[in-house]
Amino acid sequence: MRTSWRRTAILLFSLSLLGGGFFGAHLQALDEEARESMRLYTELVTVAHDNYGADVAYKDLVYASVNGMMRALDPHSSFLPPRAYADMRERQQSSFYGLGILVGLRDGRVTVITPIEGGPASRLGIRAGDIIDTINGESTESMNIDDAVSLLKGPKDTSVDITLLRQGIEDSLAMTVIRDEIPLTTVRYAYMFDPETAYMRITDFNRGTGKEVADNLERLRGEGMKRLLLDLRNNGGGLLDQAIEVADQFVPKGTRIVETRGRTRGSHQTYFAEERYVDLDVPVVVLVNSGTASAAEILSGAIQDHDVGLVAGTPTWGKGLVQTVYTLSYGAGVALTTARYYTPSGRLIQRDYSSFYDYYSYTGLPGEAEEAESDATTADKGPVFKTDLGREVYGGGGITPDVLVEPDEISPFLQLMHARSAFFRYGIEVHDKLEAKGGVSDRWKPTADVAEGFKAWLLKEEIAKPEDVEEAMAIPETRDYALRQIRAEVFNAAFGQNAWHRVIAEGDTQVQKALDLFDRSAELLASRQELQSEIDRQAELKKN
Q1: Per-residue exposure over 429-460, b if at least 16 CB sit within 10 Å of its own CB, e if not
Q2: How many whole angstroms separate alpha carbon 359 and alpha carbon 467?
Q3: Is the CB of residue 350 less than 8 Å from the CB of residue 321?
Q4: Quick one: pLDDT band at residue 402, thresholds 50, 70, 90?
Q5: Dist CA 213 CA 277 (whole Å)
Q6: Annotated catalytic residue within 130, 133, 248, 305
Q7: Could you give the angle at the alpha carbon of 515 between the alpha carbons of 510 and 518, nearest 5°?
Q8: Are residues 25 and 326 in contact, defined by beta-carbon separation less than 8 angstroms?
Q9: What gap in Å lies between CA 169 and CA 363, rounded to an integer?
Q10: Starting from the edge strand earliest in sequence, which strands make up the sheet with 187-192, in order?
Q11: 3-state secondary structure 22-58
Q12: What is the pLDDT of residues 81-105, one digit of tens each?
């Protein structure tokens, strides 16, 4: 009787967990094979629970088996336990309630990277470089960043007590911060490089991305934008409808943005650009890399296929599987692959995943064998497709850039400096000294004294050995890199993230080479506009 009860409990729990709101109506339709499989599954869970050499909960066994089932499907179908599901839903929203700070781990401590202008933290004078020592009395010394962020967030108008450690102040600073609505910004940077060249970086796609992009493009037009560098590097994607809304702002009206194809009839959908926005009508260069995936590949693929911009960088990830998220019982969820993405020219975005190891170890950079094969045939690159202007593009492996631009590699010494947060910490120290002398000018540049001070600071903090510091800083490229990073951190503390990024971009090889591609992009756009004029003329003739 006891065993029967356990089996029944496990079966009901498993079915409700796996089915929840989605499968519940279909349980009665299970055929005999499915019922036999469920009986075997129930028996396996019972045996494992009753005979394993340590205590194990039914829920843990079910969760583990569900994760195994997801791995058998494809790399992107995944089970979302309650906390992961809640986190995912929050990321997809356009705002949350918190303090209004960007935080990260610096030297093992939860540190304020920058306060968001106008947020609760900014109004209280919280500064870049402040270490959050306690949250509601709990020490953060061994806390990971996710747990710290979880404690800082909460309902609107509730309070959180924090203590801060600030350089130059012996005692900790105790503050009570009232949580407020904080926008989840996905257009991380948007500014003018020069009087005519705008830069925009989109980090992912959530419910507010389309409007963010539209608002920033309108502002940049007002500031004189005549060309746009759109940075999608390390953008892992997000919501399909937002990718479509953003693409609508770049591609010609009435053209195809993306098509989804799946096993069920409802999964076949084609999405077109509508007349929701004014024509962008400026040359565009799109930067991508191996971290560019999913919705970001939809956007870059549409821009490339319709010849309204050049794509530069390294090949994208190749994630073209459509995930539909279903709500399950107990606050859990499942992201299930239901279709595949195809670009306007018909290219499949999804890369081969028959080997999960090769799939996840992909870097997007040419390997030695590929570099040696300079006369590689078209077949080696994948199926050939044509853009609107007849340019050849390739399918079945992400988005291949029109222009390959590889990133610079940095030396082990500089990697160590980043790992130890040396540039950030010293930059804050330099900023505070400049503030004490009257403030930071937006024209400030590090002098030789700053370089020498940095070397002395590294030795004082025991971050590197004296001989390593002298050897590395004697190399002009290393010294210039270090001073640029310090300048960026000073500007971040003084003027915010856009100012930080503008300095960093000066040493970003991919950005700098992309700036040289605007003449080619302008020629491409002119040809595309000629084609569009002819298409419009033919359409008008048909009407008459």
Answers
A1: bbbbebeeeeebeeebebeeebbebbbebbee
A2: 41
A3: yes
A4: very high
A5: 11
A6: 305
A7: 130
A8: no
A9: 44
A10: 187-192, 197-202, 227-231, 284-288, 310-313, 403-404
A11: HHHHHHHHCCHHHHHHHHHHHHHHHHHHHHCCCCCCH
A12: 887 777 777 666 655 688 888 888 8
Q: Report DSSP letters for 143-212, one per residue.
A: --HHHHHHHH--STT-EEEEEEE-TT-SSPEEEEEE-EEEE--SEEEEEESSSSEEEEEE--B-TTHHHH
If you average pLDDT over each of 288-302, 353-367, 525-539, which comes out highest?
Answer: 288-302
**pLDDT higher for 69 or 234?**
234
Q: Where is pLDDT greater, at 452 or 116?
A: 452
Q: What is the largest CA-CA distance in the chain?
A: 83
Active site annotation includes 388: no
Mean pLDDT for the stretch of residues 327-340: 84
Q: Which of 319, 388, 402, 521 is catalytic?
A: 319
Q: How many residues does this entry show for the chain?
A: 544
Q: Which of 14, 294, 345, 421 is catalytic?
A: 294
Q: What angle do CA 512, 518, 524 make, to 5 degrees?
A: 145
Domain with CATH 2.30.42.10 in the chain: 95-183
Cα 231 from chain centre: 11
Whether 319 is catalytic is yes
Cα 366 to the center of its chain, rounded Å: 22
CATH code of 187-323+338-365+380-404, in short, is 3.90.226.10
Helix 422-436 and helix 412-419, axial crossing angle in degrees, nearest 10: 70
User: Three-state DSSP class for 306?
Assistant: coil
Tell me the pLDDT tens digit for each residue of 51-87. Answer: 988 888 888 888 888 888 888 888 888 888 887 777 7
Number of neighbouring beta carbons within 10 Å of residue 355: 9
Look at residue 4 in the predicted model and tell me its pLDDT: 46
Residue 248 appears among annotated catalytic residues: no
Tokens for 446? Answer: 């590090």
**Residue 359: what are its φ and ψ, rounded to 5°?**
-65, -45
Q: Where in the chain is the domain with CATH 3.90.226.10?
A: 187-323+338-365+380-404
Which of 290, 306, 249 lies closest to 400, judged by CA?
290
CA distance 404 to 449: 39
Q: Which residue has the tokens 């018909």?
A: 346
pLDDT tens digits for range 252-289: 999 999 999 988 877 889 999 997 888 899 999 999 99
pLDDT confidence of residue 24? 46
Q: What is the CA radius of gyration of the chain?
A: 27
Residue type, 352: D
Top-level CATH class of 95-183? mainly beta
